[in-house]
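Journal club side-thread
Mid-discussion, someone asked how the predicted structure for our own chain would compare to the paper's figures. Pasting it here so we can look after the session.
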Amino acid sequence: MRKKPPKPAKPPSRKTRVTVTKRAGRSAASQRWLTRQLNDPYVQAAHATGFRSRSAYKLMELNERFHFLRKGMRVVDLGAAPGGWMQAALAAGAGAVVGIDLLPIAPLAGAQTLLLDATAPDLASRLRALLGGPADLVLSDMAPATTGHAATDHARIMALAEEAFAIASGLLAPGGTFVVKLFQGGAEASLLIPLKQAFAAIRHAKPPASRAESRELYLVATGFRSTCTAA
């Protein structure tokens, strides 16, 4: 029997704080990470509702604000592992979902996955075949391994965002939507100018599920103009 995707759910209010006892062999960084995870209401909600990652709530919160998820739509998720955003799209009623990542993604009912580099030369044709046509929504939660050097990290995520935009430009149907992760500072002119030419509206947002200390924010581009292509 096909398992239904998790239903969207609001994260629960924070419960009594969990204290993690120190253990031999556990580093201070591991201690802090474990404490944060156990006390994170979005982690708790993801476990309770069956989502593979807390990031599913980021996409649902972005959708609550911008209303881009629709029933029956075709969705491509770049950097999809472990599959939280794919689950959120399916829960919203997406008709066809394809996720791409260099990391394996466990099978997900209602979705297809590709273990593939986003720069693969035949990517667009393979995605169209799997979707049964052009995409209505292209998502990218891709992020580089951070170095702690702001300028380097910003340059790396901009390169990923530009690659995602190039893919979206070759896949989206007229009126389609593109959602991509950036770091604080937003899109540079090299990306923002062609985005404004290709889409009717460009907006930045940091969803509540994004941790306060995180530098991430998301760009939501709506109303794709099919005559435009990425530079």
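Post-session note: The first helix runs from residue 28 to 38.
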